[in-house]
């Protein structure tokens, strides 16, 4: 989820670190499954997409893979190079989005992506999808509702991303329930802090874990010894947008995995409890993001609403 994203970014016109990993080997071509390099920069994951132009030539582009993002977004320079026709526009938060009206042929490795035309947008006037505070560059965003059609693996330690059609892969790791938002494709998970479960959006597109200010304040009141700062502290600055506070949680549990000291920032109360929860299958109070996810191999079996976690 790109912080403070408008509803256009979530539902489009229809309704953002770790060191870069070496390039790993790529799986043999198959229309059903592909494994490609996963580049991690500023705690965000990027993959290379291949677009086919009208003349049959191809153009590779670097996209942010954002399980908490809504529209399939393309920056304007890439859209022009691809010769995409644009239709209706909508403006929100000083940003203009134009709906793509021509067919878009795009793939990850050998797997052709199924796009929803009305949720395929060009971000007019923008040359980089990432917040100004984030390192790196992205020509666009591959969002949750597209990922939700597949079985995907973010192998952060190995530096690979796998995408497969349903039923192709045999899952590996500890299974956890992962309710998926029907329209948004947003995956939900839970972490335990002080033995209490907290519903979280599994958000690969965000660089730093976030919670409601109400939750952060309650943790801070119960644990005055936990490190706490006003505003964005350290890596939290890469989120972009406005952050109220940063707090460091000494330990938590995600399934059977222990999460050692990690930072969380806070958003105003209601952002997660009301707005984002309206787009997830069950209520959430925050988003589990790249500063935690980068430790794991995170396998998302969207069709079966299961998460498989391993290292």
Overview of the molecule:
With 311 residues, the chain is mainly β. It has 2 domains: 7-164, Acid Proteases (Cathepsin D, subunit A, domain 1), CATH 2.40.70; 174-310, Beta Barrel (Cathepsin D, subunit A, domain 1), CATH 2.40.70.10. It contains 6 helices and 23 strands. Strands 2, 3, 4, 5, 6, 7, 8, 9, 10 and 11 form a 10-stranded mixed beta sheet that branches. A 7-stranded mixed beta sheet has the order 15-16-21-17-20-19-18. The chain has a 6-stranded antiparallel beta sheet with strand order 1-13-12-22-23-14, with no helix packed on it. Strand 2 (39-41) and strand 3 (44-52) form a beta hairpin. It is globular and about 60 Å long. The two termini are 24 Å apart. Mean pLDDT is 91; it is low at 3-8 and 10-27.
Show the helix and strand layout.
Blueprint: H1 7-11, E1 33-37, E2 39-41, E3 44-52, E4 58-66, E5 72-75, H2 76-82, E6 86-92, E7 95-100, E8 105-108, E9 111-112, E10 120-124, E11 140-143, H3 144-147, E12 151-155, E13 160-164, E14 174-177, E15 188-193, E16 196-202, E17 210-212, H4 213-222, E18 228-230, E19 245-254, E20 257-267, H5 271-275, E21 286-288, H6 290-293, E22 297-301, E23 306-310
Parallel strand pairs: 4-11, 5-10, 16-21, 17-20
Antiparallel strand pairs: 1-13, 2-3, 3-4, 3-8, 5-11, 6-7, 7-10, 8-9, 12-13, 12-22, 14-23, 15-16, 17-21, 18-19, 19-20, 22-23
Summarize the structure.
With 311 residues, the protein is mainly beta. Helix content is 11%, strand content 40%. It has helices at residues 7-11, 76-82, 144-147, 213-222, 271-275, 290-293; strands spanning 33-37, 39-41, 44-52, 58-66, 72-75, 86-92, 95-100, 105-108, 111-112, 120-124, 140-143, 151-155, 160-164, 174-177, 188-193, 196-202, 210-212, 228-230, 245-254, 257-267, 286-288, 297-301, 306-310.
